[in-house]
Amino acid sequence: MGGAAVSVQTEPDAVTAAETPAAASARRLRSGAVTGSRWFPYILVLPLALVLWGYIVQPMLATFSESVAENAGDNYAGFFSAGGVARQSLINSILISVASVVLCGVVGVAMAFLLRRFQFPGRGLIEAIILVPAALPPLIGAISFQLLYSETGILPRALQRLFGTEEPVLAVSGIAGVLVVHTFTMYPFFYLAASAALRGLDPSIEEAAYNLGASRLRVWRTVLLPMLTPAMVSGALLVFMTSLASYTAPLLFGVDQTMTMQIYINRTNGDMPLASTYASVLGVVSILFLLAMRWYEGRRSYRSQSKGIASHRREVTNPLGRWLAMLGSLLGVAVLLAPVATIALVAFSRDGSWTTQVIPSEYTTENFRTIFNDPRAFEPIMNSVTISAVATAGIIVVGVLIAYAVRRLRFVGRSLLDIGVMLAWALPGTVVAINLIAAFSTGNAFSFGQVLVATFWIMPLAYFVRFLPMVFRSTSAALAQTDPALEEAARNLGASWPRAFLTVTVRLVLPGVVAGALLAFVHGVGEFVASVLIYTSQTEPISVAINNSMYRFEMGTAAAYGMLQVVLIFVVMLVSGRLENGRSSRSAREATQWAG
Amino acid sequence: MVEVRLDAVSKVFARSGDPAVDKVDLTIRDGEFFTLLGPSGCGKTTTLRMVAGFYFPSSGRIFFGSDDVTRQAPNKRDTGMVFQNYALFPHLSVAQNVGYGLRTRKVRGTEAKRRIDEALEQVHLAGYGSRRIDQLSGGQQQRVALARALVIRPRTLLLDEPLSNLDAKLREETRLEIRRIQREASTTSIYVTHDQAEAMAMSDRIAVMSGGTVQQVGAPEEIYRRPANRFVATFIGRSNVLSLPVVGAGPEHVDVAGPDGVTLRAAAPEGHGLGETATALVSVRPEHVRLTGPDAAGALRATVVETEFTGMSTHVSVDLAGTPLHVAAVQLPAGLSSGDTVGVVLPPEHLWVVRP
User: Fold this and answer.
1) Predicted ipTM?
2) Which CATH number goes with the domain that contains B195?
3) The last residue of a domain, from among B167, B200, B231
């Protein structure tokens, strides 16, 4: 997670050079120079605070009261009694998360080192596609790994055929399967953090260690690892949170006893109080991690001070090393692209034709033709687009205003507003859905007295809550890069505040806003985790349609839907990459893979 | 503690193909403070980094005393380097930074503590051991870097523009300090800088570099008074280099026809090889040119183009029969202004023939 959205004040004595002119004038601006009125911020902030309260905080409280309404907390006893499902689920979730952190840490940091520190054949290609698996929508990602590596998957069957064994070889199932999915989709948290830290590392610090007589191992132990620690801790916290919220991987690999799965199972069984109990516990754990992360990011990190010599990549020159590197790169490319390739392949397979073969045996374009010709098959696409569009519209308005308020205005409760948005980000999609169900199964003030459950409106509302942080964050990052002095200059040249705001600030922040909105939209189109709990047959979105097709063994159709999502995602990533013009593309890339 | 010798050392970077350092021969004497001086891109830092072991030479050899260290890893060389940006470990305290090299040398416990304290005292930072690096000012960080490099009693001390991040006043104080500490330890030191004043003030000897090659090696005064070529003459201080026809020559002098036809005698290096019909490049420092009245005996007539008061002296640009000439005058004839005619005296004892 980029520091963008986390505006913790740094310790005053830490790295005073960090106080940029922009930050200095931001302070000046917040102190009321914008509009002259001390009350102006509150007029803007009050409705925003109400939105965050009404749709994020209050539903959380509703879930909690639902969980204790019937038997005053007995549901929670399950978490403390040995041998119960509740306790086991919590333990499983935590163990899976810890294992994911370790695996992602090893893979991510190793990748970062290889790509940043060595020059070898194929390096550029690997670097270009390294984030592909993580960019897949969660459901499609998990399905592709299932199609590839499970007992009925392509690789184990191919190995079985190759070696002529009885059973599929190297098939993963259960928790191992979940961990494979997590490793492949979450290692970028470590990769990006370690990669950025390595890039920012002053090479002369390492040289100084060598100069003082340290061996390579010692430099690693005493200089590199300690200096990468901040990056690795924030990577670890992110992976832990994302794993904890992970729902699709346990679903597809049949691991029932995790927190997210128990929420889903209890909700589907109609035991809303128990589902709420799980949701409350998971929510609280997630929030604790959010707080831990904010606390940690507020601490100082080691930044580069040198301007001169850039770090050199070590050329792999030994011929054997070059061969191995080449081979490794090819393997890496194959592994990174395999999920997308699998989805593409299966999308052209005839439904029901793939039974025991290594890869599907019959191919057709019918899956795509059906989707576009059959109005019923096209409906999920319409649903997803409509719901995401509505949600995105709301996200833009609220997200931009909150970002502006947090970055540029001074008012009491500024950090509460910030935390409100971060809450939405920290809450697992499953919990968001349960919260909304709990809050809006009866009418309340925030739904204008209407029951929202089982209506259209609960869908965009869930998307709104889940993806609001994306626009907030990209706008906030863009604002941080825009010197408030520019707005002051416009006013000095005679522009009124609204004119200066619109012609200068909004204009400069626009690319960031659009990039964030595109991301929110595309994540909406790929949303599954919350949707599956709240959709109705009229509002079935694409991912749910995919899931239902998988249940009916219509893998071709499922993959065809998935392919459309994938294409949309890559198009949007390309466009938003352009928009951000490289200046904060890192935050955009980071933002692309967090929805578990 | 050791003599450092570079023997025809060249470095070619794969990316550019041109040699960054081209056949450099240098001998840095035991205990000497030796400076590599030159404009940016002249190869001085590359040379230093080859001595440190961060680059290996493309050809040539490097010796510490009788040890051939040409391909030795940097951590085996026992050099102490002070980096331009200090390269202090931000995650370690001041004392831990200074002690880092001791730990790699297995110096521990009270002995390590004693040496750390000693080193910090030497750089006037006693009592700062437990501070964090980011709690120090730039000058203090600079001194920690120096202490860290010296505490290991390295065979050679390498300093890569260590003063360039300090402000002017601190720079002058620190350079005296570095020199004092170096003298106390009498460590062979190689200092890289582009600041000629710094080089003149600190060095026992200087190697002036340009375009990857060594232009001249010598004591500061020698380089100043007897620059080998036009580059050295103009890079070290200011110099007027006049292109004048040779009318006669001896083994250590050349007679040239001055701007107004009067013959001038200029000292020349042995084996200058200049004879009649050749053109000699005669350098004369601005502060050695004397301004007189226009009709004074032995003076050449010149026109004042511009005057610039700098405090210590006045810089006067004059036009000497079409040749621009810079004069630094401590005392100026009263009321001099642009367009005035003045007399200019080029004292023979300060005329020196340089190679192109």
Assistant:
1) 0.78
2) 3.40.50.300
3) B231
Say if residue B167's pLDDT is above 90. no
Task: Give CA separation, A251 vs A146, A174, B137, in Å.
Answer: 11, 10, 57
Q: Is some CB atom of chain A closer than 8 A to the CB atom of B137?
A: no
Q: Which positions ≥6 away from A435 have C-beta within 8 Å?
A: A56, A59, A60, A62, A63, A279, A283, A427
- What b-and-e string marks burial along A475-503, b requiring 16 or more CB atoms within 10 Å of the CB? bbbbbbebbbbbbbebbeeebeeeebbee
Using the Cβ of A536 and the Cβ atoms of chain B, whether some distance falls under 8 Å is answered with: no
> Residue B91's domain spans which residues?
4-231
- Name every chain A residue with its beta carbon within 8 A of the beta carbon of B84: 204, 306, 308
What pLDDT does residue A302 have?
57
Phi-psi region of A322 (alpha: psi -120 to 50; beta: other; left: phi over 0): alpha
Query: Is A117 within 8 Å of chain B by CB?
Result: no
Nearest to A14 among B91, B105, B134 (CB): B134
The answer to whether residues A245 and A428 touch, using CB atoms and an 8 Å cutoff, is yes
- Min Cα distance A203 → chain B (Å) is 8
What is the pLDDT, as a whole number, of residue B64? 94
Confirm or reject contact between A11 and chain B (CB < 8 A).
no
* Same-domain status, B24 and B163: yes
Residues A210, B53: C-beta atoms closer than 8 Å: yes
Please state, in angstroms and as integers, the Cα–Cα distance from residue A287 to each residue in A51, A279, A294, A389, following that order.
19, 12, 10, 28
What CATH number did the domain enclosing A290 receive? Answer: 1.10.3720.10
What is the Cα–Cα distance from A329 to A332, expressed in whole angstroms? 5
Same domain, B147 and B11: yes
Question: What's chain A's average pLDDT?
Answer: 82
Chain A CB contacts of B131 under 8 Å are: none
Does the structure show a pLDDT above 70 at A23?
no
How many structural domains are present in chain B?
Answer: 2
In the block, which residue shows the tokens 């919260």?
Answer: A435
Q: Grade residue A583 by pLDDT with cuts at 50, 70 and 90.
A: very low
In this structure, are strands B59-64 and B4-12 parallel, antiparallel, or unpaired? antiparallel
pLDDT at B59: 93
Query: Would the pLDDT of B144 be above 90?
Result: yes
Strand partners, B263: B257
Q: How confident is the model at residue A307 (pLDDT cuts 50, 70, 90)?
A: very low
- In angstroms, rounded to a whole number, what is the distance separating the alpha carbons of residues B260 and B238? 23
Q: What pLDDT score was predicted for residue A121?
A: 80
Residues 6+ apart with CB under 8 A from A186: A100, A104, A134, A238, A239, A242, A243, A593
Q: Specify whether B142 is located in the same domain as B269.
A: no
- Euclidean distance between CA atoms A582 and A593, whole angstroms: 18
Number of domains observed in the structure of chain A? 1
CATH of the domain at B300: 2.40.50.140
Bridging pattern class, strands A314-315 and A118-119: parallel
- Sort out which chain B residues have CB atoms less than 8 A from A213's CB and list them: 75-76, 78, 101, 104-105, 152
Domain boundary, last residue among B231, B252, B276: B231
- pLDDT tens profile A425-457: 899 999 999 999 988 888 787 778 788 888 889
